[in-house]
Amino acid sequence: DFSYPYRFRNRDIDEIHLPIPVFSIGVNGRYNKRNLPSGKFFPAGSGGEYGFKVINGEKAAYGLDCAIAWRGWVLVAEFHQARHALQNPNDPLFLGLPIELHRGYFMTGGWVSQVSYFIRPIRLAVALRYDELNINDLSPGILRTLSPALCWKMNPWGSQIRFQYWQILSEDNFKAEKYTAQFRIGWIQTIK
Prior knowledge:
Blueprint: E1 2-4, E2 22-34, E3 57-70, E4 73-86, H1 99-102, E5 105-119, E6 124-134, E7 143-153, E8 159-170, E9 181-189
Antiparallel strand pairs: 1-2, 2-3, 3-4, 4-5, 5-6, 6-7, 7-8, 8-9
């Protein structure tokens, strides 16, 4: 993680309207290997929502994130990619494809970008976020979403109300969502 001109934690909102541009860039990586003996299985649910949180094989993931803030504007971008090499060539995560097509692994990954502006006189943040996620590169389609949002900072004690609309622009065929849009309203009280 590198920041300039001083340490900068990625923030979604620049409430103080930083007078000089501040940026941050970071990289990350993870690797794990779990090979189960033949006939053994992971506990039910350990694979997570998409079935590959824990896998029988090797997983290598890496990512890059950056953020810049200046005069109330914040731009944040993230990229993440993972390679899942499974021990069993007939694993259901290969979607029934022959080994000639899946080559013993599949990829997941995507990117996120967000821009926001804080209107200081009325303590209102306006944001727009765009996501792309390829859940399994062996399955056609990419999940793309767009999400505009408002956040009103009601008082100096940390109370805020958030409004967000979330729209699916296109779906990955690997796991279809149950809905194509959401409207979220939330209240947050920060206790210091």
